Amino acid sequence: MNPERPPNGVLLEVHNISLAFGGVKAIEDVSFDIRDGEIRAIIGPNGAGKSSMLNVINGFYHPQQGSITYKGETRSQMKPHHAASRGIARTFQNIALFKGMSTLDNIMTGRNTLMKKNVIWQALYYGPARNEELKHREFAEHIIDFLEIQAIRKTPVGRLPYGMQKRVELGRALAAEPDLLLLDEPMAGMNVEEKEDMCRFVLDVNEEFATTIALIEHDMGVVMDISDRVVVLDYGKKIADGTPDEVRGNQGVIDAYLGVSHE
Amino acid sequence: MGGEVIFFLEIVISGVMAGVMYALVALGFVLIFKASGIFNFAQGVMCLFAALALYDFMAPGGWVDRWFGFTFPVWMAIVLTIGVMVVVAWLIERLVLQHLVKQEPIILFMATLGLAYVLEGVGDILFGSDVKPLDIGIPQGASDWALDNYGIYVEKLELVAAITGAVLVTILGIFFHRTRIGRALRAVADDHQAALSVGISLRTIWVIVWSVSGIVALVAGIMWGSKSGVQFSLSLIALKALPVLILGGFTSVPGAIVGGLIIGVGEKLAEVYLGPFVGGAIENWFAYMLALVFLLFRPQGLFGERIIERV
Ligand SMILES: Nc1ncnc2c1ncn2[C@@H]1O[C@H](COP(=O)(O)OP(=O)(O)O)[C@@H](O)[C@H]1O
Ligand SMILES: [Mg+2]
């Protein structure tokens, strides 16, 4: 286990986060925590602020209020570079791959923060830099095997079907050997078979590599099956937080999903 | 070989020399455009600035000589000039780009327009505006080898320029495709958000691309300066790079090279063979004419992936 991880078992905690875009309040005073090693689902209707919350956690958005404690360090906002180098990797709701690059190269970019910064040797592709490159390529090949995408390793990802792109994007995130993996609707738009595969990968990652996962997902069946705890957002506010069973029975959650009484 | 053929070849070769120049300037444009979506109007001035700096580090009567009473050997002057271009890149990122990150492309373009004037002004104040003969020891005159073996008149300088251009492009190719930084550059060119999410620092990448563009500009500046002296008209070469980019595509490195060669050779041939029919001076507008034709029929250029409007 990672010695950096705090003894109370909480890897990440957001405290009283509020985020607004002009007049739009995307997140209002939301707090929750993510424990080391768990799969934590974030659910809620469209526009509830789920993606915004992931963006706050990896530093794309800077909240107006609140703070974030990660690995015991509290700050008022994260920075993408800092988040990445401290072990937070992510995927996007609308796939964000490097479309002109091959599967292998996309996955290699995931190792960016783990590679040494020797600019000169890098530029000349010489000696130690070359050996290092080969070592990282080996790891990338592991991930390709793990995700069963050997057949497309040289294909430019722009040409891959949607489901495969989602898988490559997961591969790129895994390449960083993250401590916290943020997945924004990894199964959206997939057919049943692709969803099952993705579910299996998520569970395997969590079990085999002890990676903590925060997962946004709309498919309730999936969420209830694979997550340890669920936080529910609605109109930017947290309306429930607990185990899948607790959340399922919560009247507020049922109302939110049935679209009752927002006024 | 017949005299006609030799004459034709000599024109083509002199066109290649000009083409390499255009290609190098266009290459600087493409690097910056790919990585940041910025159309860098100052690319031509960067050539001038680099050549001026180099001159003043090494030439007797240059700035260093006048102030400190000595000059640097050529290789050291080149290294120092590369250093200057890296510092310029860093300053540009610090003082300009960083503050305009989320602005419209047109605003960034205007910023580079301003940058062009600043660099030109600073160059003028620091180095003076007279024509400076740049001599870094590239052999002058006709190549005896070409003359003896093929009966073709080729300037040695032109051969050196062509070879240097090819070597530079090869090195850049390896850098882009085989190294971590190269991959990071391509990643940034492809998707800013995704690049940030894997921990690539946009600011570092920008300093790197502007530095590399500065070094490419230095090479172009050395070539041009060795041929015609370092003078302020060098910055106008940027205007020729525009049609090259339209031909080659704004995001394509091979496009910049092929486009540069087509225009360099094309305008020389047009001048010699078509010039007499239209009263000459085709060389001045041929490139723009060709670009116009491309805009009508193939606006993404020969190698371009997408239309100019991006970001
Ligand atoms: N970059 C942005 N600019 C303006 N508004 C945004 C931005 N990102 C999100 N929002 C707004 O914040 C709210 C929450 O969006 P989001 O976090 O994407 O919801 P979810 O992922 O739960 O569907 C929405 O009203 C959305 O329009
Ligand atoms: Mg969303």
Question: How would you sum up this structure, described in words?
Answer:
- Chain A is an alpha/beta fold and 263 residues long.
- Chain A folds into two domains: 1-87 and 178-263, 3-Layer(aba) Sandwich (Rossmann fold), CATH 3.40.50.300; 96-177, 3-Layer(aba) Sandwich (Rossmann fold).
- Helix content of chain A is 37%, strand content 24%.
- Chain A contains ten helices and ten strands.
- In chain A, the strands form two sheets. A six-stranded mixed β-sheet of chain A has the order 6-7-8-3-9-10, with helices on both faces.
- In chain A, helix 7 links the parallel strand 7 and strand 8.
- In chain A, helix 3 (103-109) runs parallel beside helix 6.
- Chain A is globular, with a radius of gyration of 19 Å.
- Chain B has 311 residues and is an all-alpha fold.
- Chain B has a domain at 29-235.
- Chain B has 13 helices and no strands.
- Chain B has helices at 3-36, 43-58, 63-68, 74-95, 105-127, 144-150, 156-178, 180-190, 192-197, 202-228, 237-248, 253-278, 282-297.
- In chain B, helix 2 runs parallel beside helix 5.
- The termini of chain B are far apart.
- Classes of the chains: A alpha/beta (263), B mainly alpha (311).
- The A-B interface holds A 58, 60, 80-81, 83-85, 89-90, 92, 96-101, 105, 108-110, 112-113, 115, 119, 122-123, 125, 129, 133, 172, 176 and B 174-175, 178-181, 183-184, 186-187, 189-191, 193-201, 305.
